[in-house]
């Protein structure tokens, strides 16, 4: 293992993306979020994702030189950013300042990102909103890869949902999870490692349970919690697909024709001001939240962001640990650019 700094890793990733033809707007935003995945111990959203970015670029399914555009501000609670068929991260960063300002003004505001390609985790986005003292909900569809509860074929996306709550003097409380039993990247990592899937993760093309990663990737993943996860996944199709005038997961798969590329759809970010909602009622919402968190920890439980926070603290102190194979793969992609992928 070799330890490198966050800044060094981000620089290397940005160099790979620029070598592949991406502009500074896209490469800087993406390299930051990929490096953050490695820093926070989320291997399925770290440098593993670079290959998918390159494949999507090479296939011409994303504009690596896009400049997102913020729609004319009408003073209302819905802010709209068009990603220009580029990646979602630069569009989010462009619209965030106006979202924060509008939420402080109105108490509640939403940002719609249209025509974007999404490949990354959502927790950096809810954390970015929460660092401004606001609560946040973020969601997006994906491509059809999850069977609805009781179904036999892929229809819903992995459809991640993330939430963030601001905390004073420490990172926000945040969770980010797919509404499938596991993120698709987890199945890919199992396949690469030659490991079986846990029972209940996937079905094959015939709708039968399987522990074979290849069969699961060819068939469909399953929603977490049975009908509950299926219902939440459907809600995300409605809110972050149909309601914002963008693609649903089946439409994304029809457009792409493959699950090997990053999906193209929209994203919904909702920000809320705790002070505005509690106005006129007794108590400080942030102090009350801390008492709740303390009670959870006091029972021996952990907060959902605790493991990621511990990994971040370790990486900030000792650097981000990468294997020789991972470093060699970064060097290979830097040398070959788009030719590094099929």
From TrEMBL:
Belongs to the LDH2/MDH2 oxidoreductase family. It comes from Paracoccus benzoatiresistens. It comes from the Bacteria. InterPro entries: Mal/L-sulf/L-lact_DH-like_ah, Mal/L-sulf/L-lact_DH-like_NADP, Mal/L-sulfo/L-lacto_DH-like_sf, Malate/L-lactate_DH-like. The lineage of its organism: Bacteria, Pseudomonadati, Pseudomonadota, Alphaproteobacteria, Rhodobacterales. This is Ldh family oxidoreductase. PANTHER family: MALATE DEHYDROGENASE, OXIDOREDUCTASE-RELATED. Keywords: Oxidoreductase. SUPFAM superfamilies: L-sulfolactate dehydrogenase-like.
């Amino acid at each position: 293992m070799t330890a490198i700094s966050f800044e060094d890793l981000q620089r290397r990733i940005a160099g790979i993306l620029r070598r592949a033809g991406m502009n500074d707007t896209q490469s800087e935003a993406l390299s930051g979020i990929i490096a953050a995945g490695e820093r926070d111990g989320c291997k399925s959203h770290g440098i593993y994702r670079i290959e998918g970015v390159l494949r999507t670029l090479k296939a011409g399914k994303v504009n690596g030189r896009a400049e997102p555009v913020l729609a004319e501000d009408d003073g209302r609670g819905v802010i709209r950013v068009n990603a220009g068929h580029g990646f979602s991260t630069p569009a989010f960063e462009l619209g965030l300042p106006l979202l924060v300002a509008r939420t402080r003004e109105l108490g509640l505001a939403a940002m719609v990102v249209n025509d974007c390609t999404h490949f990354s985790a959502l927790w950096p986005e809810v954390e970015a909103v929460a660092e401004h003292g606001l609560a946040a909900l973020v969601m997006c569809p994906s491509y059809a890869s999850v069977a609805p509860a009781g179904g036999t074929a892929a229809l819903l996306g992995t459809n991640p949902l993330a939430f963030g709550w601001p905390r004073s003097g420490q990172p926000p409380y945040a969770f980010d999870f797919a509404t499938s039993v596991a993120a698709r990247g987890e199945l890919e990592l199992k396949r690469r490692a030659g490991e079986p899937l846990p029972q209940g993760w996937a079905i094959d093309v015939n709708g039968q349970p399987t522990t074979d990663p290849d069969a699961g990737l060819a068939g469909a993943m399953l929603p977490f919690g049975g009908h509950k996860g299926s219902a939440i996944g459907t809600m995300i199709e409605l809110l972050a697909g149909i309601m914002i005038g963008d693609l649903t997961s089946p439409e994304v798969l029809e457009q792409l024709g493959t699950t090997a590329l990053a999906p193209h759809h929209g994203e919904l970010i909702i920000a809320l001001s705790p002070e505005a909602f509690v106005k006129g009622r007794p108590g400080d919402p942030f102090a009350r939240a801390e008492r709740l968190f303390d009670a959870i920890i006091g029972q021996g439980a952990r907060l959902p962001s605790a493991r990621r926070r511990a990994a971040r603290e370790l990486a900030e102190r000792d650097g981000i640990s990468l294997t020789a194979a991972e470093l060699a793969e970064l060097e290979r992609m830097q040398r070959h650019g788009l030719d590094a992928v099929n």
